[in-house]
Design goal:
single chain; alpha/beta; 7 helices; globular
Length: 296
């Protein structure tokens, strides 16, 4: 586990490490004036996930936390039960594969035949029956303090990240109250969420008092993943899709978007909000941090 060491990220259990090897490479080019320039560009590599002896999917990812990504993907696709015993998670860096080994053999041939391409920037894939299991979801009735939302946005937007270093990437943060806990990044928002789901599954962390914050759009996929993870609140710097809002209202998820400085919009689950902060007393967002999420 990569632990935060800098003062401004010391509250995280897992924080971004923008300078970690293999995540970016320096690429030479020319700028708008035709002058030579060198910039950091995010790496993208395939990762093939196996469940026992069955190949499940090949995902395009930046390559960090492959074990969490594999566990979270399988968990979010319903291929790992909450009470499943995982004996080993084996990552082979040379072969770019992760094998998750459980108690018994598993067969998902029929499920694998049905795939839905999602709106994720790295062309995400979910398997058959996207809405399966949502009718059984009951999310906890917790209070969401607007003071916590403002605090989270301020901390997260000032956190050194791969996005601020190189762009072309999404960030997703698991939060509790006014504290961000785990900050994952990847080329697709679905991968970042799956890494968090994998960490929660691995560490036995409960979802009921958590908030999921993302730099990306609030799409149907993001809402479904969050609801099936049992997290009652999903917030973003970016905007909404109509289907995402419809599903959030259906399952009772609090959906908050366009969080910039003192501003936000809640389109579902407003009854959870406890407005304990005066928006006029909240400082507006620093211009230098507006890039984060600005192009999502």
């Amino acid at each position: 586990m990569q632990l935060a060491t800098q003062d401004n990220i010391s509250g995280y259990l897992i924080a971004p490490v923008p300078g970690a090897p293999r995540l970016t490479r320096a690429v030479d080019g020319v700028d708008h004036d035709g002058k030579p320039t060198t910039i950091s560009v995010v790496e993208e590599r395939p990762l093939t996930i196996f469940l026992n002896g069955q190949e499940i999917v090949t995902a395009m990812t930046i390559g960090d936390y492959p074990e969490y990504l594999a566990l979270g993907f399988l968990r979010n696709q319903g291929m790992l039960r909450a009470d499943e015993t995982v004996h080993r998670v084996e990552y082979d860096e040379d072969l770019d594969t992760v094998v998750v080994r459980t108690d018994g053999q598993t067969t998902f041939e029929e499920k694998l035949k049905k795939k839905t391409r999602t709106s994720g920037c790295a062309v995400g894939t979910v398997f058959g029956d996207m809405m399966e299991g949502l009718e059984k979801v009951t999310l906890p009735d917790i209070q969401v303090r607007t003071s916590d939302l403002y605090a989270l946005a301020s901390i997260i937007n000032r956190t050194p990240s791969l996005y601020l270093e190189a762009g072309a990437i999404h960030g997703t943060v698991l939060c509790q109250g006014d504290r961000p806990l785990v900050y994952m990044e990847d080329v697709g928002r679905h991968n970042a969420v799956d890494k968090i789901a994998g960490w929660m599954f691995s560490e036995g962390v409960g979802p009921g008092d958590k908030t999921l914050y993302t730099t990306g759009r609030l799409t149907s996929e993001m809402v479904i993943k969050t609801a099936l993870m049992g997290i009652p609140v999903l917030a973003s710097r970016s905007g909404f899709t109509a289907w995402g809002v419809e599903i959030a209202r259906q399952v009772g998820l609090t959906l908050i978007g366009r969080m910039r400085g003192r501003r936000f919009v809640c389109l579902a689950g407003e009854e959870r909000l406890l407005r304990d902060a005066d928006p006029d007393a909240v400082p507006d967002e620093d211009r230098k941090h507006r890039r984060k999420g600005g192009m999502e």
